[in-house]
Specification:
single chain; 209 residues; alpha/beta; Rossmann fold; five-stranded parallel sheet; 8 helices
Length: 209
């Protein structure tokens, strides 16, 4: 078995954290070597985690969109080189809560930064062209997703954006799913176990390759 890179994407409240944990447990139960991480930041990556704190801090309301984009890319560059690539090279299955799909959805489609090809080019520079083997997009309406986490919104600068912003994020994600290879869209409004089983059917096929 070679290393595989599996990414979870989705808007706020889509259930990524729950589903990535369930998948990690399922893979470990099947004897698979798994490394779970997240973005912005990265478990085991202190430099990237410090950047995460700056990005998410609700006190940083004056942060301009360009600064936001480059902070995400700086965090990702460190995360990829220090954590993700070494784990893949030792043949682990890397599960990541968000990756470049979030940058395209949030900073390009929602913030309106640059054209899509330009943001992809900048991301490729930061990651040296690393592509996920599978990206799982958990799709939920922004209204439902934000309602799930309403008590947490004030703690994160991005979560507390207006509804229209989150609608642009969802639209961007669905656009990406239509043009990017190795993306699957899974309705996130179904029960937790139903969503998990759908994800497992996709992942188990991949890890057997």
């Amino acid at each position: 078995m070679s290393g595989k890179f599996i990414v979870f994407e989705g808007g706020e409240g889509s259930g990524k954290t729950t589903q990535i944990t369930l998948l990690e447990e399922k893979l470990r139960a099947n004897g698979v070597d798994v490394y779970k991480t997240r973005e912005p930041g990265g478990f085991g990556c202190p430099i990237a985690e410090k950047v995460r704190t700056v990005i998410k801090d609700p006190a940083n309301k004056e942060m301009v969109a360009e600064t936001e984009l480059f902070l995400f890319l700086a965090s990702r560059a460190q995360h990829v080189q220090q954590i993700i690539r070494p784990q893949l090279e030792r043949n682990a299955i890397v599960l990541c809560d968000r990756f470049y799909g979030s940058t395209l959805a949030y900073q390009h489609f929602a913030r309106g930064l640059f054209n899509l090809d330009e943001v992809i080019r900048l991301n490729d520079f930061a990651t040296h062209g690393l592509e996920p083997d599978l990206t799982i997009l958990l799709n939920v309406t922004p209204e439902d997703g934000l309602a799930r986490i309403k008590d947490q919104l004030a703690a994160c600068r991005l979560d507390s954006e207006k509804l229209e912003f989150h609608k642009k994020v969802q639209s961007g994600y669905l656009t990406l799913a239509g043009i990017k290879p190795n993306w699957v869209v899974i309705p996130a409004e179904n029960g937790i176990e139903t969503v998990h089983q759908t994800i497992w059917s996709k992942v188990s096929e991949l890890v057997r390759q």
